[in-house]
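Hi, here's the filled form for the chain we discussed.

Project: internal
Contact: R.S.
Residues: 164
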Amino acid sequence: MRAKKILGLLLLAYVVFSLFMVTARNRPRKPAEQPKELTLANSGLKESDLPQGVKNLVIVYYFHGYRRCYSCLEAERVARETVQRYFKDEISKGRLRFLSINVEEPENEHFIRDYQITAQTLVVAKFVDGKQVESRKVDEIWMFPSAEDRANIIRQVVSDFLSK
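And the returned structure, exactly as it came back:
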């Protein structure tokens, strides 16, 4: 008798859940806000950060929030050190920048939409004539615990972006 009651309640819960899913799926959705065009003006760089006349460059972004765990801080450290160690010439010529950006700051919230950020994220973006032409999330760095493996991935992606 008790098993029948439990089975009946489970069946009722399933029906209610199914009806909820059907109505939720058919409800009109608000159109997604389109990311605005990314340019050097809204890239997070100040004009004073660039050599005179530079409009073509690659930016390595590390996006984070206020709360940061050890792994997140370590990922940022590895990314920053990799860029600084292997790409000194590109940095000195103004062709490459590394930016650590807190997306919880009001002026940086647009990056959440622009790059569809849901957690700490490394993004490499290429700007040509002052406009972003390509970007890539480098999610693979979270799959490798080794700093050396992470550095190799970052180095490869940045090299690819600089050579295009």
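Let me know if anything looks off before we file it.
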